[in-house]
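Reply to thread "Modeling small-molecule complexes from scratch"

Following up on the discussion above, here's a worked example others can learn from. I took a protein sequence and the SMILES for S-adenosylmethionine and predicted the complex. Inputs first:
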Amino acid sequence: MTSTSSSAIPTELPAPQGQHREPLVAAMFNRIAPTYDCLNDVISFGMHRVWKRQAVKALHLKAGQTVLDVCTGTGDLLAYLAPAVGPSGKLIGVDVSADMLAVAQKRFGTVATLHHASALALPLASASVDAAMVSFGLRNVDDVPQAISEMARTLKPGGIMVSLDTTPDPWLPGYWWYFDTIMPLVGRFMSGDVGAYQYLSESSKRFAPPSQLALWFEESGLENVCAKRLAFGSVALIVGQKPAL
Ligand SMILES: C[S@@+](CC[C@H](N)C(=O)[O-])C[C@H]1O[C@@H](n2cnc3c(N)ncnc32)[C@H](O)[C@@H]1O
């Protein structure tokens, strides 16, 4: 995938609903792929690991199951999903950034099946996975309800789906100051990319609140939908289940 100049990206992203920014988003993640994991630890003070563990728990995975990770990136979440499904389970990752996927490929080899594809048109059969998850991914896609409905389509009856992401309305004082000033500086210093960590703030501010995500989960046919906020409301877990037959 080709890269675009970093200065062209940040303030124009993320896409207001209905616009097609996927190639720009993919190019941006291509640029930061080599430093993504390390920076994630630094800017979240390692907390993303705690949230990911909590999110994976909500999937109630069993050994031997097939689990889908949408917007898998470097496959960081797959590392938490793998022990839950065990060696007889199947891990599937999907992402639009070839360079993020290349890191995942190095990490997992043949243990995970990785698809270079969009969350808006998953290259998977309907009712083919036991559980589906997306972490810090939905806020990047051009059409969030479409991505949610694609994930729900791939779920087997009774399967659980979880989204873990930032929220636009945290309760933590100083949160946006940190996002708008410190994070872009650290991001720039570590990744050399001017725009990517400014984009993180912008995409979080424009993202749908948990109540809206929960509504989209329900509209995609899921039941028992609940939204839970973590980290002073700055991160939310949305959980839903496809009705059993
Ligand atoms: C912030 S990273 C999250 C990576 C990983 N899930 C994690 O939690 O560390 C967002 C990922 O979403 C991917 N992405 C953005 N838009 C996408 C789309 N429309 N379809 C699939 N992947 C997408 C990006 O390429 C990037 O790897």
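What I'd highlight from this example: The two ends are 42 Å apart (CA to CA). Residues 22, 25-26, 29, 71-73, 76-77, 94-97, 100, 118-120, 135-137, 140-141 surround S-adenosylmethionine (CB under 6 Å). Questions welcome below.
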